[in-house]
Design a protein that fits this description.
With 151 residues, the chain is α+β, with helices and mostly antiparallel strands. Helices cover 41% and strands 16% of the residues.
Length: 151
């Protein structure tokens, strides 16, 4: 027997419920901003552009970063459309900023050669000190072309 989404939500702790609701609202805002506003406008919402460096290696995340990562990913799966990596990274950044956690939003590109002949691919991810918000090859396969820091 499968458990409904509503039943699973009810079983969550209060902290996780609030994080999930916050993530859903911020994902919607980030998705709308990246979809309908010019690049120059929505990037102002991310903070100052940082220096472009390579190779941010994954390490263990903090409890706050882990719950934010969980909330953003879980909320993103509930939308009737695909919420791509950029709105997810932006929503995570905003959630961390509300919790006074510094982060770096990275936007990278992978060439067609390293993408398995599928054409160039862009990707966005969030880094907190040395921790990367996701498992998917961030940093190594992608050349960072933009970085937005909070510090």
């Amino acid at each position: 027997m499968t458990v409904s989404k509503t039943a699973r939500f009810v079983e969550l702790s209060r902290k996780r419920k609030l994080a999930l609701i916050e993530a859903a609202a911020l994902l919607m805002a980030a998705w709308a901003a990246t979809r309908f506003l010019p690049y120059a406008w929505w990037t102002r919402l991310l903070g100052p552009a940082g220096t472009v460096q390579q190779a941010i290696r994954p390490q263990a995340g903090t409890p706050v970063s882990k719950i934010v990562s969980w909330a953003v990913r879980t909320a993103a799966r509930q939308f009737p459309w695909q919420v791509t990596c950029l709105p997810q990274a932006i929503a995570g950044r905003w959630m961390l900023a509300r919790r006074d956690v510094d982060s770096t939003l990275c936007i990278g590109v992978r060439s067609a050669r390293t993408a398995g002949g599928q054409g160039a691919q862009m990707h966005a991810w969030l880094a907190i000190e040395d921790w990367v918000s996701e498992e998917r090859g961030a940093g190594d396969d992608y050349r960072i072309i933009a970085r937005f820091t909070t510090t």
